[in-house]
Amino acid sequence: MKQIINTKQAPAPIGPYNQAVLVNNTLYTSGQIAINPETGDLVTQTIEAETKQVMENLKAVLAAADMNFENVVKVSIFISDMEMFSNINQVYGQYFNETTAPARETVQVANLPKYVNVEISAIAIKF
Description:
By secondary structure, the chain is an alpha+beta fold.
């Protein structure tokens, strides 16, 4: 059964999609960018602040499905410039236990929605 997951604690979708879809015990999140859900403003002062907002948005979507970062089994990271990788990775790493961290890919792309620097999506499973 397909269940739509949406929360006001994360930015509202800016297109014909939902924040996440739960099928059985598997959650598929849409890519999160650094929109502050309270103000609707982009958080782009630094790549660290931008990444933190992305991760907080992802955290809120996971929580709306009664999950957390320990449930995440796969992450996709899209960045506008691979030179930012280590700064993004430093913030990203604060959200996961290194010994149980999910599988992941990091890909440099030509552009992202609203011209942000980083977008992250995840797949999580309820254990």
